[in-house]
Amino acid sequence: MNTLMIRRRPVALRRVDPFARSAIFRDPFFADPFGATLARDMERMLDVLRADVARWPAPPRPEPVAPVQLDTTDEAVVVTVGLSGFEPGDVEVTVDDGVLVVTGDTARTTTVHDATAEEADQADTDGETLTPKVQRSFRRAWRLDADQFELDGIAAKYADDGSLQITVPRRARPEPRRIPIG
Residue 118's closest CA among 106, 104, 107, 130? Predict the structure, then answer.
């Protein structure tokens, strides 16, 4: 009888990587997507953005807004507008199509004597008088219901403390009346 002899050899186990032969996974970008290459590229792009932002002009400064206080009574609404730095001639109050508008515009010229040498160089005046201009403006508006307010009776008064008081009278409410049933 034929005898089959089987020889046993030790088998070495090795790790199998199914993606080892694919070229896309040998690319350094895909091998370490959050590694040094990506961080370096992002930092370079942010440096370019920071340099561009540094060259942008400064945003415009917001216009100063006059503070407003509203007081209501049964007879009227009193609007008090703080106008420090404004003269009565700089402020205008108008009512147009049911909108109460308060505007102020001033261009103050202040005189500065004895300018320093640096200021004189900047102003090109050899130490003479400098006159810087300061311009301030504001606009506030409120819609008024013509059914509730007497638009022809609006009055404005400039107070000594630098505020403007605008009185908007209310319309008289009709008295309730009994209607006879007939």
Answer: 130
17 domain-assigned: no
Q: How far apart are CA 9 and CA 84, in angstroms?
A: 102
Q: Structure pTM?
A: 0.51
The per-residue pLDDT of the chain, averaged, comes to: 76
Q: What pLDDT, on a 0 to 100 scale, did the predictor assign at position 122?
A: 58
CATH of the domain at 138: 2.60.40.790
Query: For residue 45, what pLDDT is reported?
Result: 87
Q: Same structural domain for residues 104 and 154?
A: yes
Q: Which helix (H) or strand (E) holds 109?
A: strand 99-109
- Which single residue is written with the structure tokens 């320093």? 116
Find out whether 171 and 152 touch, Cβ atoms under 8 Å. no
